[in-house]
Protein: AAA family ATPase
Organism: Micromonospora endolithica
Amino acid sequence: MHGPAAGHGPDGEPVHEPASTDQVESGGNAEHGRTILLTPASQIRMRPVSWTWTNRIPSGALTVIPGREGIGKSLTLAWLTAQITRGVLPGRHHGTPRPVIYAATEDSWSQTIGPRLFAAGADLDMVYRVDVQHDGGFDALTLPRDCSALGREITRLGVALLAADPLLSLIHAGIDTHRDRDLRTALEPLVNMADRTGCAVVGLAHFNKSASPDALNLITGSRAFSAVARAVIAIARDDEAGDGSCVMSQAKNNLGPLDLPSLRYVVESVEIPTDEGPAYVGKLTITGESDRSVSDILGDGASDGENRAERDECADWLKSYLISQGGEAAREDVLKAARAAGFAEATLKRARTRARVTTTRAGFPSRSLWQMTVRDDRSPVGSQSAQSAHLTEAEPTGLTEPTGAPTGRFGHGPSPR
């Protein structure tokens, strides 16, 4: 088998200069300056998958985060941005803060996006608002027109994440986003640029109004949004939870495992200082793993009154059982006792949330424990150390509150909108 040929581009991309007989130019006349180039697979360098967020967000690829309105999708993106600019997200950049390009069109930078990033603990000197300057003034980033120029800036700055809030706003207005073939003309150049630069692209998307437990089927627009993406992290509000929390689950993962633990988060209002007085914005806090997935939550839409009654009965049983065990019990013991009492595992998961029972891991080898808790509804549940333990088992997280507030203005380039 031939080894990699000298002169190949980054990430194993085909070289456009024929080398010996390794690369073959097709016969026939070139049409409109286009020539077919054939590269043997043996000459394309193989490489392992690189993760911006271990096992969840691949580097050099598109990840979509869909969900309904008002559940913290934008706050999730602000949280990711903060983790990357501080170098604390488990993955390839852990320990090395990296820049983020933040493309957002629906909210004001000075009143919403900047304050959210500040509250999340982002290093604002490493977050770049993106605008396109032309003879007539400034314009928003547009795909696929600006892909090449964007890729050059990503390489120049060493950007680790392109955050798109929402992804749809980057698509040229002349492209029908409900037609698969049309949408791919914008998304495929974007993912090719991501692959060349190694930058992760994470874009937000909305759910449509359909009722389905499959998050991929709910993404508004063409199926190409989920088909072109290598990963999809769906989020949904858990109406069964007493603390108003939401859940994020891996709905698609072409490059890694799909059976990752779902994560639960809460949104709290926090006060931040500005030059014109205090402002109040939302802040996302991950509180730990969730036994309920987004698929479970979406499937609850079809639940009838009988199912809810069964859940409530199971919740009462679960609280009584844990009290009898001193307030906590191993997960496998709870499942065994629930089956003996006639409750299905799916019902038990819904009841656990209803009963405000939390999970933690303890011992060696570690095992999952279910615990009764007393919580203050006025504040988010869980601690920072608890959330860190659930993000990955392979790498440290470093998810701690910043020691100092970031400094700088809430925008770059032209005056904040």
Observations:
- Residues 1-47 form one domain.
